[in-house]
Amino acid sequence: MQFSKWKLWDNRAEHLSINYPGIYALSINDGNIEGQDFQLTSNICYFGMTNSKQGLKGRLGQFNNTLRDKKGGGHGGAERFRYDYKSGESLALRLFVSVWPFPCNTKEPTPDDYRQMGQVTKAEYDAFALYLEEFGNLPKYNDHKASPKHKKS
Prior knowledge:
Shape: globular
Number of helices: 4
Strand order of the largest sheet: 1-4-2-3
């Protein structure tokens, strides 16, 4: 896996190449892991992916909007986090993100670009498989049975 170093959630825009599709890992930590190399740990609580034209930047923006009850949200994974963390602001202080971009052209894709986008999907499933092998379960917020979505009242 070729994930970046960890960034604190609110520093996510500092990641390079986030305009491309890719996968991302989220980790909740009480200590500061910003700048540390990615490692597969039990603190990883979610893997996500995107092949959208807005790339990782757009998808992480949707997650942030859902996390903080802003318009433009609609991220199902973030709704699972919100079931446990009523304050997205508080969670953001403990949330870290690592990304693995896949450079390709999503606006006018060539056959090779489509193949690269297929690799994004494969990489996410490979991350699930490696986590499951290592820890015996999926990351908490990828497990739909164990993590319900937050219902707004």
